[in-house]
Amino acid sequence: MKKNRIIITGGKGFIGSHLIKNLTAKNYKNLLSIDKHKSKNQSTKTVVGDFFDTKILNNTLQKDDTVIHMACSSVPALSETDKEKDIQENLIGSIKLFQACVEKQVKKVIYFSSGGTVYGNYGKRAIKETDAQNPFNAHGAMKLAVEKYLQVFSHVHGLNYIILRPGNPYGRTIDNHKNQGIIDIFLKKITNNEPLEIWGDGKIVRDYIHINDLTGLIIKIIENEVNNEIFNAGTGIGTSINELIKIIKKTTGKNITVNYRGTRNFDVKYNILNIEKAKKLLNWQPRINIEQGVKMHVATLKISNKK
User: What is the pLDDT of residues 100-133, one digit of tens each?
Assistant: First the structure.
């Protein structure tokens, strides 16, 4: 299995770079990344270009490849401001990728969707993969549309897939977060002695998953012969933004200024993911709770304990 090729779109990004690092540590050799920029990781070959470039896909993909589709040019706020670009690059682009995967007879496509946006509001309970998806922001609608097209390609052409719906991953370096991931944004601001900006009253609840737990789940998916399934990727535990700030304060020992701003109508108020399916079918479960994860990340970023 470790001799088979793994193609990662967006391998230079936050999750992709950590996945490549962990796969390399497990002696996976045939890793290839499709990215807009050359990767600094010397152990990985990089094809420079867009993941939806038909010429690049035809020249890169081979029979029996595992394709991990992580590349996405938008985040929820950007999806709202330029929906046409979001659809053109991420929805139509993904369709082009799936078509090439069919033509090249790849083994499997693992698609990174969004457990935080495709479901909508479900109240204060953990959301299952079988629950209806009712996104009410553009990012969630785009991610769900890509999921549905992938399932169409499976039904019509026999393309094997896994859809992964992660919660809120964290663990980015200071220079590798692109204003994404609230924990990572907060820690960068604290490093720069800047106030924290909060949309709403801080009561929004999210399911935060450490990058090591998330990449561990991806490797479980690669190493198991499970196909045509959807998995949530979280912890099953919710933490509000206000609770998160308290954890960060306690961990760093710093005085933190918080500025609360107006509520955004495209933010999901409460999002916790039920992860029993991944536990049962993949024998996986997260090992790092939010307090441990923040502590680990603070240590990695070398944030001083001085106030």
Answer: 999 999 999 999 999 999 998 888 899 999 999 9
**Are 22 and 48 spatial neighbours (Cβ–Cβ below 8 Å)?**
no
Sketch the domain layout of the chain as residue ranges: 6-169+209-233, 173-205+238-301
Residue with tokens 């220079």: 175
Look at the domain 6-169+209-233 and name its fold. Answer: Rossmann fold (3.40.50)
| Model pTM score | 0.93
Q: Where do we find the tokens 């790092």?
A: 288
Reported as half-sphere exposure (CB side, CA atoms, 13 A), residue 260 has a value of 9
3-state SS, residue 232: strand
Q: How confident is the model at residue 249 (pLDDT cuts 50, 70, 90)?
A: very high
Superfamily grouping for domain 173-205+238-301: UDP-galactose 4-epimerase, domain 1 (3.90.25.10)
The CA-atom distances, in angstroms, between 286 and each of 119, 234, 278 are: 21, 8, 10
Q: How confident is the model at residue 307 (pLDDT cuts 50, 70, 90)?
A: very low
Whether 305 has a pLDDT exceeding 80, the answer reads no
Backbone region of residue 54 per phi and psi (left: phi > 0; alpha: psi in -120 to 50; beta: other values) = alpha
Angle between helices 182-191 and 290-301 (to 10 degrees): 40
